Amino acid sequence: MERESGHNKAENVENVMEEVGEGETNMMEEEGEPEKSLSNHAGKNTFGKESIPLEKEVLADDDDEEIQSWPKNKTNIGYQVKEEYRPILRKIIYKHGDIAKHCLTDFMDIRSALLDRIYGIISEFDTKDLSKIKETDLKSKIAVVDGIRKMKVDVEWLHKRLTDVLEARELFMQSGMLKDKKDTNKKLIEESEKALEQVSEKLRAIRDENVVCKDNLARAKEESARIARVVGFAKNKVQRFLHCSVVDGLI
């Protein structure tokens, strides 16, 4: 009976973990960085995990010495977490309380696996700034946290932070592209201003030439009118003596 119960429990852990991790599977395959199955965390008590009861540690101080003196041998039922996650667990308990208190499952193995997943995400991003986080990795972690949140684990604070980080990363990437566009646009403005100045200079030259042409035309017209008057006067003069005697009418 005990073996059968243990087998059923392991199956329950794997089923829940598969549902929680379903959102990140495709993203991680595309990125080429497959992660370990959550069921390995739930079904095995390796990697230095210990049974740590939440209830008795919530009000403990958060200094380094007490973190190091975290109780190592507890016989009462508690969450199974990795050794390296114990400081994170303690900080979360201190600030947010027992986040798995209202979890949909009562199986401690499953709750521990969910908490392990949360601590793993926090630990992974703890040493990364915005420029070092990949978008696909961040989105996959948000999907995982969302799945854990649907299990009624209180991770709204973590989900919101990761969502904010994703939005900030998108703005960060956009700022880089906008800077490139700004530099390109600045160069275009400089070239356009230079071209406009050249055109303006040509236009001023054309305007000056236009004035000169108008003055020349006006003088030419005046000269033409003067010449026409001279020609008309001379023609009258010549025609008077052209076909008759120059002394005609004198006697």
Automatic annotation (TrEMBL):
Keywords: Coiled coil
Location of region: Disordered: 1-54
Biased composition (Basic and acidic residues): 1-12
KW Coiled coil (keyword) present: yes
Presence of keyword Transmembrane: no
Record-linked Pfam families: PEARLI-4 (PF05278)
Compositional bias (Acidic residues): 16-33
Coiled coil: 178-223
PANTHER family: OS06G0711100 PROTEIN, PLANT PHOSPHOLIPASE-LIKE PROTEIN
Protein name: Phospholipase-like protein
Native organism: Trifolium subterraneum (Subterranean clover)
